[in-house]
Amino acid sequence: MDRSIEEISQLKKILMLLGIVFIASNLRAPLTSVGPVISEISNALSLSNTMAGLVTTIPLMAFGLLSSIVPKVSRRYGMAVVLLASLILLSIGLVIRPFGSLITLFLGAALVGVAITVGNVLMPAYIKSNYRKNIGTMMGIYSVAMNLTAALAAGFSISLGKFTEMGWKGSIGVWVVLSLVTILIWLPQVKKKREVQMTSTLGQDEVKVNMYKSKVAWAVTVFMGVQSLLFYCLAAWLPKVAITWGIPSEEAGWLLSYMQFAQLPMTFIGAIIASKLPNQRLLAIGTGVLFAVGIVGLLLFQTTGIVLWCVLIGAASGLAFSLSMLFFVLRTGSTIQAAELSGMAQSIGYLIAACGPPVFGALFDLSESWFLSLVFLVLMSMILITSGTIAGKNEWVK
């Protein structure tokens, strides 16, 4: 009897771990799969570059506008239930996005954005609630799953279109299979007694904290926003920067892949190391320094050593993302607070990030050189260091 109970308990733990990994795998792949086929989408639907850009911009704006609302919805219905609803919404969005008119393309993009927003905000809080003794390891696994599928989605997007014989529709539509499988894996979590996870590490969830009046919360928010801005600027513009410097377009595309794959070990190792340190200030400062060194390398040497600069930037991005996710749980005393800090930081942070690529491009238009654009990123690295110095202190929001 005891052995049977133990086996059931182990199965539940495995299903929860699989659920977290699969949800994480859905949070970036539907977005990164679009970039490589954006030209095909534009040609097929006769879109201008501005209109085509909305396919990826709409989800990013959803992150910024809706992240602060998610914790309130979660408190009413429960994290597991809201996450399940988001997976269903994601599946609908992924089906609608490639198989209709221009209106359904944008509607699908909006649904995808709303669904991913829920996962972005709630998963760190869910991990905090269920893995208090292994937060660093679990946040590392979560981050790696998210970024690995993001890199694979970008790398295999065109190949998937050919494999399915559906072109760009297959490239961005095939990810509905992953979301449907995730729904099945996640169902056992919904059957649990409703929201055991909405408990405090201190048993004091009733203590309210106004995140918008907390210095620590604002530092975490700025850190989250600036690291996202740096990543999205380079994800959007690095290939074009390299092409203008004389690198062939195919090789320029691989530079972005090098950057993304360099993120993976840092997202995992960084979270584990950071969770075991008394504070994370040195790691946060080091992240900004790594960004600055990589960007200054591009600025001064351009194509000379460009792979090295991309790898350094990727490592910095992986560590910065990992720290951002970890701050949500390390700087709060309860699951509810973690969700609220996550909501605030991602809401404002992604709005900050959304401003980055247009500014980067505008500075190039202004000077007809990438110099000012890259200097802008160096300045952002300095802000990352400053905010990281505060966010990295061993201090809860209050």
TrEMBL record:
Keywords: Membrane, Transmembrane, Transmembrane helix
TM annotation in the entry: 14-31, 51-70, 77-96, 102-127, 139-160, 172-190, 216-238, 258-275, 282-300, 306-329, 341-364, 370-392
InterPro entries: MFS (IPR011701), MFS_Cyanate_Porter (IPR052524), MFS_dom (IPR020846), MFS_trans_sf (IPR036259)
Domain Major facilitator superfamily (MFS) profile residues, every copy: 14-393
Domain of life from the UniProt record: Bacteria
Gene Ontology molecular function: any one: transmembrane transporter activity
Name under which the protein is recorded: MFS transporter
Gene source species: Myroides pelagicus
